[in-house]
Amino acid sequence: MNRTSAVTAFMTLAAVALVTIATGASAQRGAREPIDEIRTLEQQWNEARTRADVATLDRILDDGWTVTHANGTTDTKARYLADLKSGARRFSGEVSETDFRVRFYGDTAIASGSSESRVTLNGNAQGGSLHFTRVYVKRNGGWRMVVTQATTRQP
In Å, how far are 15, 41, 141, 145 from 57, measured between CA atoms? Predict the structure, then answer.
């Protein structure tokens, strides 16, 4: 190999390496952090409940999802979505969250915080000032909510 060929080969290799590095860095900048994914799901969860958007909730919730409400009653995914769809469960206004925190344990995320909501079930008040814990599991590249628990916040 003569000197010109060697220099050309080196320059070509260097150019390929730079493009590969630049492409990888660009892909990393475009990748979302897990905490951002959970925050987005929390926002979608709250917005979908206030609009009775069953399709969005169906996508967020694992088929085995359960919720334990502040009054101690529990619902399955099917029951909760059916109550929203029928209008038996109604949210009035937005759901707001404060003190939001997420901890990760591999492909499991535990989200907790406080919320304010106004909701009725068959005309009876639910919601209010709550503390919540939600567990998300990452499956097939996406996060799914698998359980929710709420407790009434004391003044």
Answer: 47, 10, 18, 10
Q: What is the pTM of this model?
A: 0.78
Place of tokens 């590095």: 21
pLDDT (0 to 100) of residue 13: 46
What are the sequence ranges of the domains in the chain?
A: 1-31, 34-152
Contact 120, 136 (CB under 8 A): no
- Spatial contact of 108 and 124, defined as CB atoms under 8 Å apart: no
Q: Fold for domain 34-152?
A: Nuclear Transport Factor 2; Chain: A, (3.10.450)
- Give one word for 122, left, alpha or beta, with left for phi > 0 and alpha for psi -120 to 50: left
